[in-house]
Structures are given as structure tokens and as C-alpha cells.
Amino acid sequence: MELTNSILLAVILINFFTLGSARLGACVRIVAVQGALLALLPIMVHGVTLHSTLLAAGAFCFKGVIIPWMLLRAIQRVRIRREMEPIVGFVPTLILGTLTTAGTFLFADFLPLISAHHEGLYVPTALATIFSGFLLLITRRKAITLVLGYLILENGIFIFGVLLSEALPLMVETGVLLDLLVGVFVMGIVMDQISREFSTLNTERLSALKE
Amino acid sequence: MLGSLVLHLVLLLVFAPLWLGIIIKAKALFGGRVGAPLLQPYYDLARLWRKGFVFSRTTTWVFLAGPVVGLLVPLLASLLIPFGGIDAPVSFEGDLILFVYLFALARFFTVASALDTGSSFEGMGAAREVTFSCLAEPTVLFALLVLARLADGLSLNQLFGDHLGQAWQGGAGASLGLILVCLFVVLLVENSRIPFDDPTTHLELTMVHEVMALDHSGPLLGMILYGAALKMMVMSALLVRLAVPWQTGWWLTDAGLFLAGLVGVSLLVGIIESTMARLRMPRIPQVLIGTSLLSIFALVLVLR
Predict the structure, then answer these.
(1) pLDDT of amino acid A208
(2) Which pLDDT belongs to residue A158?
(3) What does residue A82 show for φ and ψ, rounded to 5 degrees?
(4) Shortest CB distance from A109 goes to which of B286, B293, B304?
(5) B286 to chain A, closest Cα gap in Å
(6) How far apart are CA B217 and CA B220, in angstroms?
(7) Is B235 in contact with B78 (CB distance < 8 Å)?
(8) Tally of CA atoms within 13 A in the half-sphere of A40 that contains its CB
């Protein structure tokens, strides 16, 4: 119980780090760590069963290794290091992130949950992680950071899923992970296209595309 | 009461410069040098004390008040906090506010004495000092609020009481860990240590704290240096108590444990100084806002 709480706190701290940091490489690595930490959760909550082990292994491979590796390669290929000029600055996003996190902690107490989930950190952490992912998606311009926001969003959903993983069939989780992988693939192709057309990765150029 | 007062002051006055010596030694060892002797800060203070006073004709009594208040304030503040297991000699409800604003008072006088010289560099340093410390202040207050929530009391003696050991093991361990990190960052900022300010720099444009002491010399500079050492020891004392909340009940072993903890803090500062580069000036406010947010988050964790 103590260890799962530490893991969930680490997940929240990683959310803060990604919201406040401009260095893409560090962000990708730390999100990989977040995914790997989350992969431990199903085993710690439900014990070592075939189901939980498969869930953990799948999450670890996709979120901790494959997707971050692809993102790091993409960063190397298009040679960008930093998120320049986000739509909302780093400090305001960090403040927003903390406020939403504090808000989810207060909000989670009012949710009609079953008593086993009432006091724990799971529900607020899941909500906070989803909101951090949203914030990242809203406030950044670079395509790689948007993929990261999407990844964090999925991590938040995964935390929710862990609570239900007895009821959650393996197929559903596999489907989510595959979706994520395909999403990252598509994003990779899009990033390649953007950088080839405009020699930058700013997604705002896409909206200015006219005949 | 009188005994603990004397013990507090003797511990503070005798050992304060030693920690600077340990930091310098640690940095030298990391650089592969032998380094200055551990007692070098004491020799420096003695040397400065033997020199004469030099006053610029443009300065007034404000110039003199800065170092004097800077020396007296840590002494007063030290009486409010427990040194390890040794209880604070002076304690009353709400003294945590006095503790925080005593340092603000010292800062006001240091800044005033820097501005009194009329030097543009000192004005620049004063502006930076005030900016950074007003960003560090929320962190300290929120950290103290977390402790107040855990202690159900409002005096520093209760805040840093012996319940901390159980709090670490109980549900509040994460919050305590967060505010420990936050307070350590505040320690580095307020004492102008490396990721935020370089105490050995000799370039006025990049200095923060040191630039305000440029016109002080001789005994006045000695008072500033000694006051800075006292301030560092008082702030590290909070960290030590937070990180090592055990007490034995006998004052001698408690003092020994406390001093060992301070050696640990100084070594940690020395290691950080030798392994990290200075942050760019615009990054410092961002880091400080980050620590404020972390301490707010720690407060949310203990409040629910």
C-alpha cells in the first residue's frame, strides 16, 4: 500500500515536470519512466496472476520502451531539442497543472465511489494525470510534445483501468495500447511530413495551410 | 531556560563558520585539490576583524545598520527553533511568523545598506535579492503550514516536535519528503549557493547576494560573512530536525546528532555545488515558483 502510494506520487511529480520543462529529450525519458512505474501497478494491486502479469508486461513494453524509443529517434531525426514559445508559458501551465491536481484531490472526495477506492490516491491521481495530458495537448505547439500529452492522457486512463482490471478484459487494454501505438505511428509520419514541408515541427503551420 | 539559551547561542556562534569550511573542503576534494583548511572561515573572520573601518562619504548610518541587523537577526531567530533534539529556549504560539519575517527584516536592512552606497551594481543585486526571496517566501510559509497541520500547534517548538518520527512513517511521509526538498531549495536560494547564485563569483553582473556587500570592508564585511554563516546554520537546523527527527533525551548526544546532521547538510551542499552548473537568471524564478507549487501540493496532501 505504501509503495503504490509512492508510485502514484511519483506519477504526479512527473506530470509536473513535463508541464514545466522545455527539454523534449528529458520529457520523453521521464514519461517513459512514468509508463514503467505504472506498469508495476496491476501486479501490486491484484497480485501476480496471469492476467495482471500480461497487463504489466504489455504496458511496460509499449509505454516504457517502444513508444519512448520511437519518440527519441524522431527527435534525433528532426533535430529539435526544446519546446520554443508554447501557446501558454511554462510557469502558467505549471500553475494550472497544480491547481487542477489540487482540484482533483478535493473533487475525488465527493465522487460516489465504492468504499475501497474512497481514501486512496488512485482516483485523484488518474484524474490529475488525464488533466495534465489535456493541458499539454492544449498548450504546446510541437508535434512531439502533443504525442507526449496523448501518452500521459493514456497513462491516466490506465490508472483508472487498474482499479477495474478484474473486470477489464485483456482485449480492451490490448486494444487501447494498439490504438496508442498506431496513434504514435501516425503522429510520427505526420511529424516527418511537417518537418519536410516547413522545416519546423510547429503544428500551427498546419492550420494556415490553404490552396 | 538560561542553560538552554546559553547552549543554543554557544552551538550557533562557535560552529557556524565551520559548515562553510566543510563546503569549501568538499568542493576542493571534488576538484582534486587539497583545499583550504577546515578552519579557514574562522581565520578569515579574525583577519577581517583586525582591519579598520572605511566609509564612503556618501553613506549614512543605514550603511552601518545592514551588517549589524544581519548579524543580530539569525541570533534571535535561532532562539525560536529547536536544534535537533534540544528544545527552543523561547517559544510562543505563532512564532513561526516571527521567524519568517525576522529574516525579511534582515533582508530589508541589507538591501537598504546596499542602496545607501548609491552604486548601480549594488542596486541591481538588491533588486535580484528581493525578487528571489519574495518568490521563496511562499514556499517557506506553505511548508510551515504543512508542519502546523501535522503538529496541531503554531509554535516552531511544536512544529518540529518529536511527533515527526511517526509522521514520516504514517501517511504524511510523502508530504514531509516534498517539503524537505522545497526547504532545501530555499536554503540554497537564501544562502546564495550554487544553482542559484555563486558565492565565489567576482563578476558584478551575475552576482546576486555578494554584490550587495561590495562596499563593505574590514569588520563590517566580517559581520556580513559571519551573519551569513549564522543564517545558513539556522536554516540548515530546520532541515536537520525535519530529516533526523530522533532525540535521545540527553543534551550532549542530542547536540552530537544535530552537529552530525549539519555536517551531512554541508556535505550535500558541497556536492551539489561541485556537480551542478549555475542556473540561468530567468530560470531561477521558474524553479522557485515550482517549489512553491510543490509545497502547495504537499499541503493539499495533508489536508485531505
Answers:
(1) 67
(2) 84
(3) -125, 150
(4) B304
(5) 6
(6) 6
(7) no
(8) 13
* Rounded Cα gap, residues A141 and B98, in angstroms: 46
Q: Please report, for chain A, the start and end positions of each structural domain, with discontinuous segments joined by +.
A: 2-204
Burial class (CB in 10 A: 0-12, 13-18, 19+), B243: middle
Total structural domains within chain B: 1
Interface of A with B in 70-99 (CB under 8 A): 90-91, 94-95, 98
Question: Cα–Cα distance between B295 and B184 in angstroms, integer?
Answer: 12
Structural domain boundaries, residue B115 = 2-303
Percent helix, strand and coil across chain B, each to the nearest 5: 70, 0, 30
pLDDT-derived band at B228, boundaries 50, 70, 90? very high
Reported confidence tier of residue B18, pLDDT bands at 50, 70, 90:
very high
Cβ contacts of residue B105 below 8 Å, gap of 6+? Answer: B69, B73
> What does the DSSP 8-state code read for residue A117?
G
- Contacts of the segment A168-171: beta carbons below 8 A, 24+ positions apart: A170/A51, A170/A54, A170/A55
Chain B contact residues (CB < 8 Å to A):
173-174, 285-286, 289-290, 293-294, 296-297, 300-301, 304
DSSP state letters, B172-184: THHHHHHHHHHHH
pLDDT of the residue at A188: 73
| pLDDT greater at residue A152 or residue B2 | A152
Residue B203, classified by CB atoms within 10 Å of its CB into exposed (0-12), middle (13-18) or buried (19+), is: exposed
User: Which residue's entry shows cell 551542499?
Assistant: B269
Let me know: does B112 contact B62? Beta carbons within 8 Å. yes
What is the rounded CA–CA span in Å between residue B136 and residue B286? 11
Reported ipTM: the value is 0.78
Helix (H, G, I), strand (E, B) or coil at A22: coil
Residue of B nearest to A6 (CA): B174
The rounded distance, in Å, linking the Cα atoms of B226 and B173 is 35
Q: Helix/strand/coil (H, E, C) string of B126-173?
A: HHHHHHHHHHHHHHHHHHHHHHHHHHCCCCHHHHCCCCHHHHHHCCCH
| Contact in structure between A15 and A159 (CB atoms under 8 Å) | no
Q: How far is B184 from chain A (nearest CA, A)?
A: 17
What are the tens digits of pLDDT across the range B57-112? 888 999 999 999 999 999 999 999 998 888 888 888 889 999 999 999 999 999 99
**What is the rounded CA–CA span in Å between residue A43 and residue B221?**
61
